[in-house]
Structure formats: C-alpha cells, structure tokens
C-alpha cells in the first residue's frame, strides 16, 4: 500500500535538502491544499520539518486572455473581417464585440488603412498577411514556455489579458527531529505509563492551546427573562422596590373596584377577562376600606360625583386572572397608606404575567408580561411623571419621547407614551401612564397631599424588537425553536 502522503513528503525531503510545497503539489499531482494539510499533520508530531513561509508571483491568463488565446487578438479578428474590396468602418464595428479596440490596434500596427478617396470611406487591408504575436505569446504563457519582455507583460496586463497571482507556500527543510516515518503520538498520559516508566519513551501530542474548548452543556435563559433582568436592573438603579406579584388569581375587588373601575365597565366582561370557576369568589377584604370603595363608586365623595350606580359586593367578590399588575399596585398602596409607621414615600415596580381574553394575533396572546412603575410622594405632578419616564426610557437607549392624552379609569390625566425607536427608525407606542385618581387613593387612606404617578408597558414587545422576532409564537409557546433560546445573544437594552 503506498505510504501516507505525510510519509511520502518526508521521504521526498530525505533525498532533497529543501522543497517548496507548490513543487511538491506538482510532483505528486495533488492540490496544494492537500500538501498543506499533510504538512500540518507532520508538524503536530514534533519538529520533523521546518516550514518557512514564502510567496510566489505567477502570471495567469484572465478570461479575456483565454478568449484571445483561442480566437486571436482583437486586432487580428478585425483584420480577418475586412473583405478584399474593403468595408465601411461602421459595418466593421459590428463584426466583433471588441472591434473598436481591434481597429485601433490594427491601425497602430500598420495592418489596415482608411481609403478616403471613395464615399463612404472604406477600411482596407494594408498588408497581405499578419503575425498575431499576442495570440502566440498567450499560448506560450499558458504552456509555461514564455519569456516575455517586461513592457510586453505590462501591456498585456493593461489590456486585462493577464493577471498577476500571488501564491503563498512553504519551503520545507529537515527539522531537528527529522524522520521519514511518523511515530504515533500519545494523547493521554495513563497511570500505567507513569507506573511502568513507559512514558519516558513515548511521544505525546503537543497541547493545542488555540483549540476551542468543548462548549459546556448548560442552561440557557429565554430572551424574555434576559429583557426582564435588564428592566429589573433599571428599576433597581432608579431606587424602585419590586412588588410581590406571586398571585395570578385576583379578586375583582383589587383588580377593578379598588382602581375605581365601575362594575359595568366592558373590561370586566367575560369577553375581556378570564373569570375563575373554582374558587369563584373571594370573601376577605378590609371591610372599612371596602365600604369606602362602595361609597365612592355609588355616591362619589372626595370631591367626586362617583358613578351613581348600585355597587354590588357579588361583582367585587368574583375571582379572575388579573388583567394588569396594577391590581398589585393597588394592594401595595393600600398597605402603604395603612402602615403602622404611617405613609412614607415609595417607589415600586412589578414585572409579571397578566391575562386578557383578547383576540390572538401575531403579536398578541391571551397573556403577556406587564412592566409597571409606581411612585408615591407628596406633591408629585405630571411633570414628575414625564421626567421619570424620560429617565426610565433613557436607560433603555430611548431619548425621544412624545405623549398623547389618553383615558384610563384609574388615572387622570393619562398619557400614551410614544418613542422614536433608533433601531426601527420610526415612532412606536411604548406604553401608557398617568396620575392615580383621588377616588382611588383617598378611600385607601393615602394622605390628601400625596400624589401617585405610574406607567406601564409590556415585556414582549421590547423583547420581540430586541431579538428581531416577528411572531410572538416564535418566542413563547409550544412551537418555540429552542435553538433561538440557546443562540440568543446577551441583552443590553441600551445597545444595538
Ligand atoms: O409595551 C408596549 N410597547 C413597547 C414597549 C417598549 C418597547 O421597546 C422599548 C423601548 C425599548 C417597544 C414597544 N406597549 C404597551 C405598546 C403597544 O405594544 C401595545 O400595542 C400593547 N400594549 C399592551 C396592552 O395591550 C392590551 C403594551 C401593553 C401595555 C399597555 C399599557 C400598560 C401596560 C402594558 C399600562 C399601564 C398603566 C397605565 C397607568 C398606570 C399604571 C399602568
């Protein structure tokens, strides 16, 4: 069996002091890359050879040069296309694709002339025969037999008939550990080798410190969780404390009534809300607070005329899947107002799931994560809300905001928030916000001189934008491609 290419190279080097890998490729009739691969394998076995990098400039025919080598030079083609009686120049230009260049070259060679004694003037042959030296030279170059003057080579390069190719290769010479065979390289040092002393006579494969380590088997965070961490970090940097949102099931009282949302509001309809069959009702509410809520809905108070309807506890007792995390904000504000130490300013945030019985589409499911920020302090104004929003979105890499008046049952004034998204290069809606109404705060016992500003957005929309996901089902649900999770890059909301 004829030896491995590696040993054939070593045997060739045994009887030659040095050799260029390009010449080896020619000698063995193999592609140069095969020689280089065998060289790498030899080098992995120790210092058997020394490989000095070198580069060789060779001249090769371009595609146009190959065409001229076959068809003849452009000037020779033009000469051949001129009939005995001559031809009008315009007609001659139609006879070949490079007739214009050929005509000019043939005139400068003295092969043709223009007879102006006739009308129209005719192009005629000036000599009986020609020697197409360009074609002959290109054939010689292609056969590796040409020895052309530099000015001729320069002219052919200028005419794009030739191109200069630089080919990198190696000059091989014998190394300190030269041998004509490759000894087996051990890859593992075993206990037996150490105990017997055998290791002293063995050759070990050198460590390849450039090799990439095997990717450790590990878990991967879902893009939503990466974005949630970014949002959480932003809130924490801004001094907000996270609210306890570990209750998907909520009573209608905290989800709607405490937020001054009337019991006949369409959002409280089963078409928009998931009500719970079991346990269908909650019964434990702060009774004094519940009475104040009932009063403010039905008869008003605190300067409000209320809604003037017959408020029913049975509606407030209905359990549901919370439709917003503002229900948690309501619980937290009630607790803040009734803290044993009395009211103290606070900044809260929440990021958790909410559920809405909505029409599903490419960007909406029946559940999403709401991100909410709440600030309670003496004398807060809409300006404080706007300033807080600018700071919050600045940390997300967004600096251009616009606000549009809106309506929420629990905030007045309310504003939709829009931003110019640099990544999308367009204005997009990024959330909603407002100042909680007195009809919400005062029944809780929040002091009259305290205002509460709040805003909300989703987690899914920024995540889909950040990770270039167009359909929400490619991000959440049973059809998610886990490679998307594994390969998702780290998330920096303020960087592209
Ligand atoms: O998230 C939304 N858009 C958004 C947010 C961020 C973003 O990228 C970041 C800048 C880097 C890109 C887009 N929206 C709110 C706007 C729209 O996507 C909207 O179509 C969908 N909205 C959800 C509700 O849909 C039924 C997003 C969700 C939303 C809307 C309002 C609130 C919370 C979530 C709120 C509130 C609120 C208001 C006042 C007081 C307390 C809470």
In brief:
This protein is α+β, with helices and mostly antiparallel strands and 496 residues long. Helices cover 34% and strands 23% of the residues. 28% of the residues are buried.
What does this structure look like?
The chain has 496 residues and is α+β, with helices and mostly antiparallel strands. The protein folds into three domains: 78 residues, Ribosomal Protein S8, Chain: A, domain 1 (2-Layer Sandwich); 58 residues, Arc Repressor Mutant, subunit A (Orthogonal Bundle); 265 residues, BirA Bifunctional Protein, domain 2 (2-Layer Sandwich). It is 34% helix and 23% strand. It is built from 19 helices and 17 strands. Strands 9-12-13-17-16-15-14 form a seven-stranded mixed β-sheet, with helices on both faces. Helix 2 crosses helix 3, helix 4 crosses helix 8 and helix 5 packs across helix 7. The longest helix has 15 residues. The chain is elongated and about 120 Å long. The model has no long low-confidence stretch (mean pLDDT 94).
Write the layout of secondary structure elements.
Elements: H1 5-14, E1 18-20, H2 21-28, H3 32-43, E2 49-61, H4 63-71, H5 74-80, E3 87-88, H6 89-93, H7 99-109, E4 112-115, E5 122-125, H8 133-142, H9 150-158, E6 162-174, E7 185-186, H10 191-196, E8 203-204, H11 223-237, E9 241-242, E10 249-251, H12 252-255, H13 287-298, H14 313-317, E11 319-321, H15 326-337, E12 346-355, E13 367-378, H16 382-394, E14 401-408, E15 411-421, E16 426-436, H17 438-444, E17 450-458, H18 460-466, H19 482-487
The structure holds ligand FB9.
């Amino acid at each position: 069996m004829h030896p491995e290419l590696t040993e054939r190279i070593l045997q060739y080097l045994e009887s030659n002091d040095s050799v260029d890998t390009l010449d080896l490729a020619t000698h063995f009739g193999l592609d140069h890359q095969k020689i280089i691969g065998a060289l790498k394998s030899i080098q992995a076995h120790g210092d058997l050879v020394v490989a000095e990098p070198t580069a060789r400039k060779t001249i090769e025919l371009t595609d146009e040069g190959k065409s001229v080598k076959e068809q003849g030079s452009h000037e020779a083609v033009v000469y051949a296309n001129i009939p005995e009686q001559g031809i009008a120049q315009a007609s001659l230009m139609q006879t070949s694709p490079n007739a214009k260049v050929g005509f000019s070259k043939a005139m400068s060679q003295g092969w043709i002339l223009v007879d102006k004694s006739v009308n129209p003037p005719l192009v005629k042959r000036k000599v009986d025969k020609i020697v197409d030296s360009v074609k002959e030279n290109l054939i010689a170059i292609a056969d590796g037999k040409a020895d052309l003057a530099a000015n001729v080579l320069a002219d052919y390069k200028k005419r794009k008939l030739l191109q200069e190719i630089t080919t990198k290769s190696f000059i091989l010479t014998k190394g300190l550990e030269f041998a004509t065979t490759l000894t087996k390289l051990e890859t593992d040092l075993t206990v037996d080798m150490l105990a017997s002393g055998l290791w002293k006579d063995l050759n070990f494969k050198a460590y390849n410190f450039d090799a990439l380590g095997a990717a450790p088997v590990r878990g991967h965070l879902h893009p939503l969780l990466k974005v949630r961490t970014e949002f959480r970090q932003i809130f924490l940097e801004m001094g907000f404390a996270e609210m306890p949102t570990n209750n998907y099931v909520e009573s209608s009282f905290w989800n709607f009534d405490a937020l001054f949302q009337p019991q006949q509001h369409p959002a409280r309809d089963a078409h928009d809300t998931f009500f719970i069959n079991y346990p269908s009702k909650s019964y434990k509410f702060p009774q004094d607070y519940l009475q104040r809520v009932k009063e403010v809905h039905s008869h008003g108070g605190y300067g409000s005329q209320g809604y003037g309807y017959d408020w029913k506890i049975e509606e407030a007792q209905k359990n549901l899947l919370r439709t917003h995390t503002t229900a948690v904000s309501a619980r937290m504000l009630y607790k803040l107002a009734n803290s044993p130490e009395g009211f103290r300013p606070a900044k809260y945030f929440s990021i958790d799931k909410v559920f809405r019985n909505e029409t599903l589409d490419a960007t909406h499911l029946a559940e999403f994560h709401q991100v909410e920020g709440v600030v309670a302090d003496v004398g807060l104004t809409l300006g404080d809300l706007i300033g807080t929003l600018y700071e919050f979105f600045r940390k997300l890499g967004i600096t251009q905001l616009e606000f549009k008046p809106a309506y929420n049952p629990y905030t007045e004034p309310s504003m939709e928030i829009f931003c110019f998204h640099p990544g999308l290069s367009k204005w997009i809606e990024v959330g909603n916000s407002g100042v909680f109404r007195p009809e919400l705060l005062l029944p809780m016992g929040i002091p009259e001189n305290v205002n509460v500003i709040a805003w909300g957005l989703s987690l899914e929309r920024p995540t889909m934008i950040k990770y270039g996901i167009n359909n929400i089902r490619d991000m959440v649900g049973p059809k998610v491609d886990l490679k998307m999770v594994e390969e998702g890059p780290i998330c920096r909301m303020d960087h592209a």
